[in-house]
Amino acid sequence: MALENGLVAAAVGLTALAAFQLGKRVGTDGVTRALILASAALAITCRDQPYVFPCLMLAGGLVTHAVHTADPAPPDVEAARADPHICFAYSWAVGLGLFAAWAGLLVAAVVCRHATDVRALHVWGTFYFTGSIIFGGGPVMIPLLQSYVVGPGWLTDREYLIGLAAINALPGPLFNFAAYCGALALRASIGSAVAGALLGFLGVFTPGLILIAAALPLWRRFRSLRALQPAFKGMNAAATGLVFAAVYLLWNNAIAGRSAGSVVVGSYPLFTIVSACAFVAAGYTRMPAPLVVVLGGVIGIIDWAVDPGAYVA
Fold first, then answer.
1. What is the predominant subcellular site recorded for this chain (predicted)?
2. How far is CA 296 from CA 2, 174, 192, 311, in A?
3. What is the pLDDT of residues 216-237, one digit of tens each?
């Protein structure tokens, strides 16, 4: 338990750093900053309603589209350059077909999540749906998955946080976290856990791969449509607000001590310091995130060695 506390405290600090860095990059004007704040507040308030998250991102896109549509379009530097002739092995019609396949699988994923009791299909549908609606990168997945896998009881809060700490200590994208969650969701046996990891991995990565393949032959045709650019700004701002909400939610359920349940990080000054040091070390000293997480675990072990009674229920 002491090791876990150190690991998850460091993970909370790294998540806070991701939120801070996203906020600096995405919050470029008053509208996007207001969307970040509103999205975070609504996500915290309505955290038990999973569909609030994609609705917030959609609403953010609509807001910035409405606000910035009348703005003069900036010069398209990329389009002004000599555009080399790029040949694709498939036509734009194939791209449209791939897009239709992505949409059809998304409908199937929603059906699997709500119209079947087969856990494996439910797991695949959840991760495919998550991979389809994420804007802003891996950190945005943290609040979405917490709601989608902890809410149904597939994982406990502690298991989720330990996995988050572990994935930060390992190489590779944060999306690999889906394999961990999928394995625990189908943990009845080793074989089912492996199948769950595969379903989670494929579910979360497949939508992006299909959409990239679909967009390549269409990019030259549609990249000049600037009407979509303001919408993506708002969606990214709302997604960033979800990461800030995740920091708050993780902070409130990260540490386990004498009580059986999880408590707020601030209840333990040592682990509050660990979270703060993880934020500073990774953000300002360029210490690698895996090393930050490992050091957090070491501090947890030292805390247990100094006061083992704190970890006796």
1. membrane
2. 10, 19, 32, 17
3. 877 666 655 666 778 888 988 9
Task: Give Dmax over CA atoms of the chain in angstroms.
Answer: 70
* Cα distances (Å, whole numbers) of residue 313 to 1, 99, 302, 308: 11, 53, 19, 11
If one compares 280 and 258, the residue with the highest pLDDT of the two is 280
Rounded-to-integer distance, Cα 241 and Cα 57, Å: 9
**Minimal CA–CA distance to 182: which of 213, 158, 214, 148?**
148
User: Cβ distance 92 to 217 under 8 Å?
Assistant: yes
Exposure string for 207-229, b = 16+ CB within 10 A, e = fewer: beebbebbebbbeeeeeeeeeee
Q: For 27-91, where are the alpha helices, taking DSSP H only?
A: 30-45, 52-68, 77-80
User: What residue ranges in the chain does DSSP mark as E strands?
Assistant: 255-256, 262-263
DSSP 307: -
**Nearest Cα residue to 289 out of 16, 5, 1:** 16
**Whole-number Å distance between alpha carbons of 45 and 166:** 28
Lowest mean pLDDT among 64-68, 184-188, 274-278, 309-313: 309-313
Quick one: CA torsion of 188, 191, 195, 200, rounded to 10 degrees? Answer: 50
Look up residue 72 and give its DSSP letter: P
The mean pLDDT value for 160-175 works out to 83
Convert 76-93 to b/e letters by CB count within 10 Å (16 or more is b). Answer: eeeeeeeeeeeeeeeebe
How far is it, in rounded angstroms, from Cα 110 to Cα 228? Answer: 25
* Mean pLDDT across 50-78: 74
Does the predicted model carry a pTM greater than 0.90?
no
Residue 263 pairs in a beta bridge with: 255
Query: Which residue has tokens 């969650």?
Result: 181
